[in-house]
C-alpha cells in the first residue's frame, strides 16, 4: 500500500478512534461515578477534559508537525491514545483516572488538528469528499462505542473496566499505518508544497512567499473558533450526559446507549453527504444555520419531555451534530494552502475548545443543584443561537493567507 491509498487507510483508522474514548464512557458513567465516588460536578469536569486537552495540546500540533512531519505527529498521538485507554480503567482513584483520560485525549487532540492538514496536503482537489469520508469513520467509531460498550461490559461479567479498556485495541491498530506513512518520503510537512511528492517549497521555486497571516486579527478565524467551540460544547454535553438524561427519564442503560448510538449513526451518511456538498459551495452559512435549528429543536424537546419522543430528539440532535464535519470542512476551505490550514486548524480548535470547557461542567453543576435536567437543557437550547450566528459568519466566502 503506497501513496494516497496508504493515506486514506491511515485517515480512516485515525478517525474511527477519535470518539470511542468519550462515547464509550457516557453509557457506563453511572458505574464509573459509583466506583470512584464522583459527584455530578466532578463528572462534568470529566466530560470537559477532552476540550481542555484539545485546546492545550492542539495548539502545539503545528510545531510538532514541523518537527516530525504531519504523519509522525499523528503517530505520536495514536501512541498516547492507546496507552491512556489501556491503563485508564485500572486507575486507583479519580485523579489518576482523570490524568489517564487526559493522556488519551492529548493523543486525540493531535489528530483533531492535523487530519484537516492531511486532507489538504494529500487531497487538495477533494477536500469536501475526504473530510466527509473521515467524518463517516468518526461517526462509525462513536456509534459503535456507544452501542456496544454496555453489552461488552455485560459480556465481561459486568466489569465496566474491561468494557472501556477494550477500545485501546482499536486505537493501537491505527499506529502502524501512521508510522509507515511518516516514513513515506513522499509525505510533506505544513509549510511545504501542498501536493505530496513536491521537491521544492514555494521559496525554493523562486516564487514570492506570502507573510504568515495574523489569525488573531482575522474575523473569519474568530468566527470559526466560536462556531467550533459552541458545537463542541453541544457535542460533549451530548456525549457525556445524554445517556444519563434518558436513564433519569426512566429508560434502561442499554436503551440509553442505543439512543446515543443513533446520533452517531445518523452522522455516517449525513456527514459524508454534507461535507461533500459543503465543499463545493462558495458559502456554507445556510448549512450552519440549518444545523443549529435542528439542535435548538432537539434540546428543547429533551427539556420539555425527554421520554415522550426520545427517538425524535436523538434524530434532531444527530443532524445537529453534523456541525463538527462542517466546521472541519470550513477550516480546510478558508485556508489558501496546507500551511495556513495547519495554523488555522490549531487556532480555531484550540480557541474553540477553550470556549467549550465550561459547558459540560456548568451542565453537571446545574443538574446537581437543581435535581432536574430542565435548566441545563434550556441552557443548551439557548446556546444554539450564538452558534448559528458564528456559523453564518464563518461560512462566508472568505480566504485567509
Domain tally: 1
Name the poorly predicted regions: 185-209
Please name the CATH architecture: Up-down Bundle
The average pLDDT score comes to 83
Structural class: mainly alpha
Elements, N to C (H/E): HHHHHHHHHHHHHHHHHH
Instruction: Return Rg in Å.
Output: 20 Å
Helix content: over 70%
Count of alpha/pi helices: 18
Shape annotation: globular
CATH topology: Growth Hormone, Chain: A
Number of strands: 0
The proportion of residues in beta strands is: under 5%
CATH class, named Mainly Alpha
Described by strand count, sense and barrel closure, the largest sheet is: none
CATH-wise, what's the superfamily?
MFS general substrate transporter like domains
Distance between the termini: 34 Å
Report what the structure shows.
The structure is a single chain. The chain is an all-alpha fold and 401 residues long. It has a single domain, classed as Growth Hormone, Chain: A (Up-down Bundle), CATH 1.20.1250. The protein is 76% helix and 0% strand. The chain has 18 helices and no strands. It has helices at 3-16, 20-23, 29-36, 40-58, 61-68, 70-87, 94-122, 127-155, 160-165, 167-183, 219-248, 253-278, 285-304, 310-320, 323-334, 338-356, 358-370, 374-394. α11 (219-248) runs antiparallel to α12 (253-278). It is globular and about 55 Å long. The two termini are 34 Å apart.
Brief overview:
The protein contains 18 helices and no strands. The protein has helices spanning 3-16, 20-23, 29-36, 40-58, 61-68, 70-87, 94-122, 127-155, 160-165, 167-183, 219-248, 253-278, 285-304, 310-320, 323-334, 338-356, 358-370, 374-394. The two termini are 34 Å apart.
